[in-house]
Design goal:
With about 375 residues, the protein is mainly alpha-helical. It has a single domain (about 5-365), classed as Glycosyltransferase (Alpha/alpha barrel). It has 13 helices and seven strands. Strand 4 (about 200) and strand 5 form a beta hairpin. Helix 9 packs antiparallel against helix 10 (about 245-260). The chain starts with a helix and ends in a 7-residue tail after the last helix. It binds glycine (GLY). Glycine binds next to loops.
Amino acid sequence: MVPNEIKELCDNTLDFAQGQVKKLITNHPDYFPLYTEGGKWKHDKQAWTNWCEGFLAGMIWVFAERSGEAWWKQQAIHYSNLLEDRQFDREVHDLGFVFWSSWRRWLALTDDAAEKERINKVIIQAGKTMGLRFNEKGRYLRSFVAPESCFIDIMMNVGIIFYAAQQSGDEALLNLVTEHCLTTRRYLVRGDGSTAHEGLFNLETGEFIRQSTHQGWRDDSSWARGQAWALYGFGTVYSYTKDKRFLDTAQRCADFYIDRTPSHGVPPNDWEEEGGCEFESSAAAISAGGFLQLSQLTPDPERSKKYHNYALTIVQTLCERGFVASDTPGWEGILMHGSYHETLNLGVQQSVMWGEYFFVDILDQLSKGGRFIG
Ligand code: GLY
């Protein structure tokens, strides 16, 4: 149950978001930014890796559905088609981000049987391509940085592999993606429910060596966005597998997030870093979606209520406490105070494309009454 005042807040914020995205795609056609610099999308700072293209297409699909306007639908199809070749991309571990945000929405919104078949084929191929990242010895999907590296972020990309395995009846794919999740659960999720960004493995033997980080503060600290990917991703895996171990992991990650975050629900970039950025709004936006999902997965009514209300708290904070750029003239993004990579000084306290997408996504879900759409 979403109170009417929250629905209204979501609708008003979505109107602002729609205007910002319209300006982005009309001012910079076919441009897929990752983060703003000084509030502007167009700059020449590095990408580090290419993983955000589906988020822009995904937001355009949200606005196509909400507005019912042909212009938005044309843009959504155009921006999605620009991604089609990525179904074969072996360079990144992010094909869930690329295709689940964009082509999966297209699949849900088209009634044309032939078009549905074409779209589904692309999504399945993207899931199969992700499966090719599997390291047999270590039993994990490798990250984009190195064969010996497994990222917590990959948990948010495995849903598309489960989907591809189910759609194509591919048992081997189902087994390997399940093994990846169990490996991540064992080595990247700690006893207190916190997560490490990265696990490093011995390529000869598959032995786990140590935890590490790129975007968090230290190897043994807790990077908030990684936590968001984990609590959301393990929940998604539970929804596919109904394996209670994954629900338990998602809940432990969620509870760590709640315990360590101020009551407004927006975490810092890293919970252990003293003097770091106070806010990482994209982790909050992602987590709101993860909490909403968990509220509908958990069999415990008290927990369900707690997660549901926490999702609402996060959204209310983001909408009402100066995170939305509506009062910041000239800022081209929707949500401010996100951070991409503090160590490399990329997109620190800026708008970040995944923060925009997951914010728009949770606003849209709550505006529709709060049923998790996935
Ligand atoms: N590398 C994905 C992220 O920044 O969360």
